[in-house]
Fold:
Amino acid sequence: MRTVSLPWDLGLVTPLDASEACDWILGAAEDLSRPRILSNLNLHALHLSLEDGPVHTLTSRSDVTLVDGWPILLLAKMASPKFGWPTTRERIGSTDWLSELMRRDPEIAVVAVGGTPETATRMTSYVNDRTSNMQWQHFDGFSFAPAAEASSETGIRDMVSRADVVLVGLGMPTQEQWILDHLALMKGGAVVANVGGCFDYFAGTQRLAPRWMGRFGLEWLYRLAHSPRRLAKRYLIEPFLLLSRLARRGQRPHA
Structure:
């Protein structure tokens, strides 16, 4: 896999399309002594990764960091202009590769953590209606209780320790801290990913932006229109804070 070093020392990304991301998830791990970390980088994550904290720690430890969002895609293209790469195919969110994973329906045990109890139940039903081999166990992000449709009453720690894939959607930076706190439970070779609010989109408790808006980099506008109070700071203020931080970094004398 090729990695791209973003400009201004903003970190590394591994541009993959949804199919390639699933190939990596389902492929054999080179190092069975530890779990593998799959993270995604969007503008909000980039902003948080520039300060000490769980997002910075998890991103720096990730085995694969996906390109999530047009700003990160443009930064990656700036870093590799000779190759005309990555393309929009490699700009993917968690819903993209998780949809592909469900389509493949591998014989793996997946533990999902996050969302309301309603989201956890509806997400479990969504997955079970579309797969026959994948074992899906969902714990909500509030009481960490198993979903109403769950087939097991085993505790979350035991399930995480047995899982082949662990998906954590608790919002940034809570989900990154949760992953760091529970990494030691996970078996070697397993994959853990921070997936934000993707469970809500599958469950129907949040609406996903139309695909054509994604092609034009307008998904943020759709989300802002539907959740203005929750997302106004992220989309209208954070980009300017990020630019200010980058400007200050550029003024620092080189060692």
Q: What stands out?
A: The two ends are 32 Å apart (CA to CA).
